[in-house]
Every structure is written in C-alpha cells, then in structure tokens.
Design goal:
Largest sheet: 2 strands, antiparallel
Helix content: 55-70%
CATH topology of the largest domain: Arc Repressor Mutant, subunit A
CATH class of the largest domain: Mainly Alpha
CATH architecture of the largest domain: Orthogonal Bundle
CATH superfamily of the largest domain: Winged helix-like DNA-binding domain superfamily/Winged helix DNA-binding domain
Order of helices and strands: HHHHHEEH
Mean pLDDT: 83
Strand content: 5-15%
Number of strands: 2
Distance between the termini: 30 Å
Radius of gyration: 21 Å
Shape: elongated
Oligomer: single chain
Strand order of the largest sheet: 1-2
Length: 132
C-alpha cells in the first residue's frame, strides 16, 4: 500500500522523484533516463543497456515505460540498403514539466471534488468534524 499523503508530504524529494511519483517509474527507468539525458547523442537500446549494465530486453522494457510516460522520444534511422533501427533521446524538459503540471492540476481538481463529496456526505451527521 502506498504511503499516506501526510507521510509523502513530509519526505524529502529530489526532482528525479517526480518520475516515480507521477508515473510509477522504477529505479531502472530512472537510471535509463539519466543515461539518455547524459548522452551526447540519441542512444540505441543496446547502448542504454550497456550504460546501465542490464540485459537488452530489460533495458528495452524500461525505455518503453519512459516512452509511454513521455520522457523520451523515439526516432527511426534507416540504413541506406534497407532495414532500420531506433534511437531514443530525452523529451524537452519544458514539455515534460508542462505535462506534469497538467497532471498535478487534474489531480488537485479531482481531490478537491472528492473532499467536497466527503463534506456533503458527512456534513451535519456529527460523525466527522471538518475544519472550516
């Protein structure tokens, strides 16, 4: 069970913690993200796997989670004589920040609605006294 919000608010958090907080990403996902961000150019899954010292398939799953979360972008590179491969690079930080801010605003609105529903349900029952 996740930590209650009161405990989460008291914890020290680093900016990389947003990856976990907003998208449920794992430590390996964060390591892969750091490898991609730290690279001078877009990376293949093989290069990412080598950078984080993991098997190709394990790194591939982490990169797919990052892709789904919108933290990395994928580009197809075509060989001159047929065939292709993919490389991955970080999404623009401003776009990621805007997406997280939008998610936070949506969450905040939803929590506000739930609190109002709670208040409507229990107001006047004497069961719970809510602060004003």
């Amino acid at each position: 069970m996740p930590d209650p919000m009161s405990e989460q608010l008291q914890q020290d958090m680093e900016c990389e913690g947003l990856l976990e907080c907003f998208h449920g990403l794992k430590e390996l996902d964060k390591d892969c993200f750091q490898a991609i961000v730290g690279a001078e150019e877009a990376m293949t899954v093989e290069e990412i796997a080598e950078a984080v010292d993991r098997e190709h398939s394990t790194a591939y799953r982490a990169v797919q989670r990052l892709l789904k979360a919108g933290f990395v972008q994928k580009e197809q590179i075509n060989y001159d004589h047929g065939g292709y491969y993919h490389v991955y690079y970080p999404t623009d930080a401003q776009k990621m920040s805007a997406d997280m801010q939008r998610m936070l605003n949506d969450w905040y609105a939803k929590m506000g609605q739930l609190i109002r529903e709670f208040e409507d349900k229990y107001e006047g029952t004497g069961a719970v006294e809510l602060p004003s």
